Each structure stands twice: as structure tokens, then as C-alpha cells.
Amino acid sequence: MPHASARSVPQVGFDRERYIALQSDRIRARQREIGGRLYLEMGGKLFDDLHAARVLPGFAPDTKIAMLEQLRDELEIVIAVNARDLRRNKMRADLGITYEDEVLRLVDSFRARGFLVENVVVTQLDDADETGHGFRDRLERLGLRTVRHRTIPGYPTDVSRIVGEEGFGRNEAFEPSRDLVVLTAPGPGSGKLATCLSQIYHDHRRGVPAGYAKFETFPVWDLPLEHPVNLAYEAATADLEDLNVIDPYHLRAYGEQVTSYNRDVEVFPLLTALLERIDGSSPYRSPTDMGSTSWGRASRTTRCAARRRARRSSGAGSRRASRNSARSQTRASPSASASSCGARASTSTTARSCVRPALWRRRSRPRRLRSACTTAPS
Questions:
Q1: CA triplet 213, 269, 148: central angle to 5 degrees?
Q2: Cis omega before residue 219 (within 30°)?
Q3: Which of 52, 57, 198, 358 would bridge 13 by S-S if both were Cys, CB 3.0 to 4.6 A apart?
Q4: E strand or H helix at 83, and its extent?
């Protein structure tokens, strides 16, 4: 009987069961290190994470929620939503529903899986915001507890104001039922980090030990910067201007090169200052320290399988960059970032037939927009 060709052998890049066991243990260990209540900020989607499935071979869209199910009896889930997103009727594009409806969908979905969901935080809620207050009333009629966070002038740079009576002190605080509190949201910019820090502030005022950790899907910190999985992530988020970088704080503290990304590195000094002002010290010496993910240890990625994902992601990043090019003409080209990732993965954005038209639109759209803007009104 002839041997099967190498191409017919499935190339699985991710061990789901190993990851679920490792990650749940890692979260428990981080809670023990904190020595009290842990507020865990979850990055990305807990349901239907098609982005992670596209980037990491072998990853299923429900892997993160399946991992949390191992901790279901130990945690509660809190949802943060920004009142400004409610006011402008912001949509979740992939589902075609508003953030208001998405909050309700998340509550129902989590509860259907047996998770405890009691609290919703409405962030940046001003006195005159009728939409935000109306949504808060609606949630309370449905039996949910809600708390209000105000807009803090000078956030996030004015640390002395933020960590005081005129900052976090003006926010309402919820009382968790469990000591592992998972923060999620309908989308980015909802105020998850600020909610965690505000809760820690109020807990410490009451003498309750509490700490913060972050769960971020990508980049994978214990895979090299140029590993195809990390390249695929960077290409897939080119339109968001995420860039993989070596964590300089980790390198300085431990002499070890690990992978982080630009936004975590940029916000780390501020986060450290906030934690030091709240608690007197920060347990973290680097952005990597504050993470609690174990993707790399569960990865069995063959480089060819991951490189295929990098090719596909560079194409997807270019197409989204084309759609978003009109939003800002002053920033570096996202399609160029996607092209760079493709080159580093030994491929190109033209490896897929759909990319060439996308790049053409990216080049031609600014000229059409400039022409329209300089045309005199009739």
C-alpha cells in the first residue's frame, strides 16, 4: 500500500485540550499570586472568535469560552459598555446589531452556558445622556445590577486626579459575588481596563486585596517575533495599526526577548503608575508580566501551516485596509504593513486573487476623494 503524501496529513497547529487545561491553571495561579480578588480583562471575543481561528491553525472559534467553562463555578462575568457607543447607536458589524442589543445577547449567551452574570458597567455616562440612562433603566428592569462610571477629565494621563476622589472616587462600584471577575465588552473602547482599575481602587479603600491581569489572545508572547503565527496576527490587524514588538521592559528586567505589541508597551508606564498609586506598588515589571495566556505552550504549529495563515491574513489585512483607507490619509499605509508581513512570511499580498483589486482601490480611492473635496459646490 503506497504511503500517503505529506499533503494529505492534517497539520494541526494548536492543541485545544492542552490549552484549556494550561490556561485555566494559569488563571488560578495568577489569582493565588494576587492573594485576593482578581479582575481579569479579556481581550477579543469570547464567542465566535473567527479572527483567532483564522490566525492560529487548529483553533476553534469557541475555545476561549470553553476554557472559561473550566472555571465556571469560580468566576463571574461583568460586561462594560461605553455610553457614547450607545448614544451613537454603534453597530457590531459582523452581526449587524447595535451594542445595546449585543450586551443583552452576551448576557443571555453567558447565562445559557451556566455563567454568573449580575453586573453591567455603563462607562463615560454623563448626567444629560438620556440614551445611556434609559439603557441602564432597561437593564435594571430585566433584573441586572448596573453601575455608572463618569467621564474623568485628564484620563488616562492625569494620574493624581484619576486615582482620587475626583476620578475613580466619583465612580459607582459593584460588589462582586466571586473573587475571580472576568471583564468583557461588546467591542473595543468600552472601558474594561478603567473598570478594573476603578474596582481595585474601591476595593482597596474598603480593605479588600485585589489585583489586575490581562488576557490577550495575540501576539503569542512565547513565540518569536517573526514566527508565522505572530506575523499572521500582525497582518490580520494591519487596519488597526497593531505592530508586534520586542517587549523592552521585559528585556530590561529579565534579559529575555519576548513578543508584545505596540499598544501594550505604550500604555505600560501609565498602568504601572496607576497601580502604584492605588496599591503602593505594582506586581508587574513588564507588559508580558501582566498577561496570563498560554497559547505558545499549547501550540504545535508547523511552520508551513502557520505560513499559510500569514498569507491569508496579509490578504485580509490588505482588503480591510482598502475599505478603511479613507478614514485617515496621514497615517502609515495599513496595506503596506500587510505587505511587509507577507514578505517576512515568504509570501506576498498578491498570492491571493482578491488582493490585487483591493490594493488598486487603496491606491485610487485617495485621488478620487481629493478630487471630490476640491470640487467647488454648485
A1: 55
A2: yes
A3: 57
A4: helix 83-87
User: What is the DSSP-derived secondary structure letter of residue 319?
Assistant: H
What is d(CA 31, CA 290) in angstroms, rounded to the nearest whole number?
A: 12
C-alpha cell, 377: 459646490
Range in 38-47, 55-64, 266-275 the model is least confident about: 55-64
Element (H, E) at 37: strand 37-42
pLDDT digits (tens, 9 = 90+) for 125-180: 999 999 999 999 999 999 999 999 999 999 988 999 999 999 999 999 999 999 99
CA atoms of 123 and 325, how far apart (whole Å): 30
Q: Cell numbers of 286, please? A: 513588564
Decide which of 165 and 339 is more confident.
165
b/e code 8-18 from CB counts within 10 Å (16+ = b): eeebebbebee
Residue spans of the domains in the chain: they are 14-217
Assigned C-alpha cell, 278 = 492605588
Q: Which fold has domain 14-217?
A: dip2346 fold like (3.10.630)
302 has pLDDT over 60:
no
Tell me the C-alpha distance between 96 and 89, whole Å: 12
Mark residue 149 as left, alpha or beta (left: phi above 0; alpha: psi -120 to 50; beta: remaining): beta
Cα gap 285→268, rounded to integer Å: 9
> Looking at residue 329, what DSSP letter applies?
S
**Side-chain half-sphere of 299: how many Cα atoms within 13 Å?**
24
Cβ–Cβ < 8 Å for 194, 151: no
Query: Cα(72)–Cα(68) distance, rounded to whole angstroms?
Result: 6
Q: Count of CB atoms within 10 A of residue 262's CB?
A: 12
For 109-136, give one letter per residue: b (16+ CB within 10 A) or e: ebeebebbbbbbbbbbbeeebebbbebb
Report whether 298 contacts 22 (CB < 8 A): yes
Q: How confident is the model at residue 61 (pLDDT cuts 50, 70, 90)?
A: confident
